[in-house]
Amino acid sequence: MRPAPLPVRSGTGRFFVLLGAFVCAACGLVYELELVAIATYLTGDSVTQTSVVLSVMVFAMGIGSLAAKRLRSRAAAGFGAVEAALALVGGCSAMALYAVFAWTGSLGGAWAGGSRYLLVVFSLVIGVLIGAEVPLLMVLIQRIRRQDAGGAVADLFAADYVGALIGGLAFPFLLLPMYGQLTGALLTGAVNALTGAALVLGLFRRDLSARSRRALIAVNAAVLALLGTGVALVDDFEQAAREAIYGPHVRAVVRTEEQEIVLTGGRNGSLDLYFDGRLQVSSHDERRYHEALVHPAMNGPHARVLILGGGDGLAAREVLRYSGVQRVDVIELDADVVRLARNDPALSALNGHVYRDPRVHVTDGGAFHQLRSMDRTYDVVISDLPDPALTRSAKLYSQEFYGLVSRVLAEDGRLVVHAGSAGSRPRVFWTVEATVRSAGLRTAPYRVEGRLTRSASLLDRVSSGSGAPRDWAFVLAGRTRPGVVLDPAGPPTRSLTQAALVAGARELGRTRMTGLPPSTLVHPRYGAGS
């Protein structure tokens, strides 16, 4: 192989090739992480999304490496074309996935049916293009100066791995907080396109015919123009997509380190609160849920109450209706949820302005961590946490977690856990019940009818296929088996009756699944498909 006629010294040329490998590797890892992040955001199951994206990409990289053998004779032109294609596909992937989610709603449900083609297609195409990079760079670096194959491979892989490290760190600590998923992916594509074009046109332009040079310039200009247009329009796109998901009456949008919080409605209509696209609260029927969650657990001593989650203040509202309550501690992971519930006029009115009550004390942070350091006991512990089928919530429904809860539970105290929908995901619900029992507590499961509103979350649609959960199911527990009974001296309930509780508990008991092992930190047994 003849050395390439370069505009710089060979040592400088090798440096630029390795620098190109470094930047391209960083961009490639950003694309991988961005696909995992956007898919997890849209469906909530991080383990499945990570497994699918990475396994498909690694497989596709092998295909790309083999396919690159056909381009070795035209390595410079091939590398330029690969980087332009990778910049376009990778840069636009997040926006395309989000668009499908927003305007069709099919992405969330497609995976449950085994047909999430779009995510797999993007993973496959990006993987093939990433896999083609190193073989072509290997040819280019050998064109500068002949080197033994082992040394050239070591140099390229060193640059590639260090670049992957930088890309992996830049994604969560720089791109996401500063630019968000969509703009971050678009900017990464622009960097990718500029790097590929600069390397080929700057160092190896003599390997290209005049026609190939013009074509490469035109293609990269078109790619950069498309990516730049995407960056310019991303705010309008996000607003349109948000309206497609949530409707036109968006009151507030808050992006935090934990999630995206969206509050909609409130003007003579239903006030809806969403976390990462999943409907958490609807004023249309939230009182039915919160009365069922809180009131059965309050039948007994209830001077000290601990609420895990529940930053919207609605569970605390029901607790404070009992005159004997002296202290309510709320542990909420995301302080912005509490801030919104405290400051938004409609949401604070819905929760009865509970955060003005001096008996309510808020602790920011994860429930697992806070329970480990807690030294007081409670008469009632209310677990109002995200759905157990979400991977990131699995530890909050583990044997270890309920062991920590039992430590802060008074001798005659009660724990109540919202455990999802027994009708839609019975195995998940009964696994929660088995896990609570494994922590040494006796249980009394019960259920009430599910959401009435039509504005159900996309995850709800995946789970039940009907646009809303079939039911809300709960596990009431204590050191002695508690009765699912409303306090006869307690405040009146608007939608919950003792007859409905008894009927729901009896009906739920007929569906009991026995022999289920408990979920633990090292062996979580929940999943969206359970």
Automatic annotation (TrEMBL):
CDD domains: AdoMet_MTases
Keyword set includes Cell membrane: yes
GO cellular component, one term: plasma membrane
Pathway(s) per entry: Amine and polyamine biosynthesis; spermidine biosynthesis; spermidine from putrescine: step 1/1
Membrane topology field: Multi-pass membrane protein
Residue numbers binding spermidine: 290, 312
EC number(s) stated in the UniProt entry for this protein: 2.5.1.16
Keyword Membrane: yes
Spans traversing the lipid bilayer: 12-31, 51-68, 80-105, 117-141, 153-176, 182-204, 216-234
Entry coiled-coil feature ranges: none
Compartment list: Cell membrane
Superkingdom: Bacteria
Main location: membrane
Job of this protein: Catalyzes the irreversible transfer of a propylamine group from the amino donor S-adenosylmethioninamine (decarboxy-AdoMet) to putrescine (1,4-diaminobutane) to yield spermidine.
Subunit-structure text: Homodimer or homotetramer.
HAMAP family: Spermidine_synth
Family according to the record: Belongs to the spermidine/spermine synthase family.
Protein name (Swiss-Prot/TrEMBL): Polyamine aminopropyltransferase
Originating organism: Streptomyces jeddahensis
Upper classification of the organism: Bacteria, Bacillati, Actinomycetota, Actinomycetes, Kitasatosporales
